[in-house]
Amino acid sequence: MPSLKTRIASLALETPLLTASGTFGFGDEYASLMRLEGLGGLVVKTLTLKPRSGNPPPRLVETPAGMLNAIGLQNPGLKHFLKAELPHLQNRNIPLIISIAGDTEEEYVALAEALDRQTGIAALELNLSCPNVKKGGILFGTDVVILESLVSKVRSVWNKPLIAKLTPNVTAVADLARAAATGGADILSAINTLRGMVIDVATGRPLLGNRFGGLSGPAVRPVAVKMIYEIFEATKLPLIGMGGIMNTDDALQFIMAGATAVAVGTANFVEPQTIPQIAAGLNDYLEKAGLESLHELVGVAHD
Ligand SMILES: Cc1cc2nc3c(=O)[nH]c(=O)nc-3n(C[C@H](O)[C@H](O)[C@H](O)COP(=O)(O)O)c2cc1C
Question: What is the pLDDT of residues 193-228, one digit of tens each?
Fold first, then answer.
C-alpha cells in the first residue's frame, strides 16, 4: 500500500499537502471542513506583532487564470492570536505552522521568541515579502545580506523547524535560497505572489486600493515550477512548492521539480475540497505507478 506520509526536515506530516498562508485564515473560516481528509499541515495567515487593518479596498481582482490581491497582511496581532486563536488551533491535532512578518528584524525576532515559548506549534514560516523599514523599504526577501541576517537572528531564538518563504520578485532566486540556507533555515518554501497591477479603464485609475497587488493562481504556476527546479539545484534544503496548484498533476509537477511538500492557496477559494481531492489523486498515482512513497518522485525532472 502506498503512503502519503512525508518527512520534511524534522517535520512528520500525514500527507505532503499544506494550506498556503493567507488563503485559509486561522482555520476557523474552514472549521466545518477542518477534518479535511488529506491535509498534512495548516499554515496560518501571516501574523505581525501589532494588529494590522490591511490595505484600502478594493483588495482583490480576478485576472486571466489567476487573481491579484492586496490584502496588506490584515491580522489581529500577536496578543490576540495567543489568546483567541492559538488555543483552538492547538486542539486540531494537525501540524501547525505559523507565518510571521515584521517591519524590522527586531519585530520578527520578538514574534519568534514569543512563539517559541508556546506549545503545539510545529514550525515557523518567515514571510519575506515585506519591506525592511530600517533599510529604506527593501524587501527582506530580495537582498541576500538582509535575508541571511534576518534568518540567522530568528534561528537563534527559534528552536523548531524554520521555513523561509522566498519571493519570486527577484532576478536570481537561487542566490536568495542559498542566503536563507546559510542563515540557518531548515526548509524553503516558494513562491509567494508575483507583483502586478490592473488598471480600470473606465476611471483610468489603478483598480486595487493599494495600486499594486500579488498575482497568484494557475497564471503563476510555470514560473513557480521553474523556481522550485532552480532552488532544488541551488541548495540541499527540502522544499515546499506552491503557486497555482489546482489538481493532482499540478502538485506532481512541483514534486518532480524538487518539492518534498506542496501548498495550495488560491484553489481553496475556487474549490474548498481541492486538498482532499489532490490527496486521493496522489494515492491513485502512486498505486498505478507501483511506488511506495512520493519521496521516490522528488526531483525526478532533473538530469
Ligand atoms: C488572498 C491571498 C492572501 C495571501 N496572504 C498571504 C500571507 O498572509 N502570507 C504569505 O506568506 N502569503 C500570502 N499569500 C500568498 C500565498 O500563500 C501563496 O504563496 C501564493 O498565493 C501562491 O500560491 P497559489 O497560487 O496556490 O495561491 C496570499 C495569497 C492570496 C491569494
Answer: 999 999 999 999 999 999 999 999 999 999 999 999
Instruction: Identify the band that residue 93 occupies on the pLDDT scale cut at 50, 70 and 90.
Output: confident
For residue 281, what is its C-alpha cell?
Answer: 489523486
Grid coordinates representing 48 are 505581525
Which among 250, 266, 269, 270 is the best mutation to test ligand 1's pocket, defined by most ligand atoms within 8 Å of the CB?
Answer: 266
143 lies in some domain = yes
Query: What is d(CA 180, CA 241) in angstroms, rounded to the nearest whole number?
Result: 16
- pLDDT tens, position by position, 148-190: 999 999 999 999 999 999 999 999 999 999 999 999 999 999 9
Domain extent at residue 50: 6-54+73-195+216-297
Measured in degrees and rounded to the nearest 5, phi and psi for residue 237 equal -75, 145
Instruction: Answer whether residue 42 shows pLDDT above 80.
Output: yes
Q: Which of 97, 192, 223 to mutate to test the pocket of ligand 1 (most atoms within 8 A of CB)?
A: 192
pTM for the whole thing?
0.97
Calculate ∠ Cα 238-110-100, nearest 5°.
Answer: 45
Residue 119 identity: T
Which atom of ligand 1 is the closest one to the Cα of 245?
26
Domain CATH for 127: 3.20.20.70
Tell whether 66 is covered by a domain.
no
Number of domains observed in the structure of the chain: 1
* Ligand 1 centroid distance, CA of 71 (Å): 10
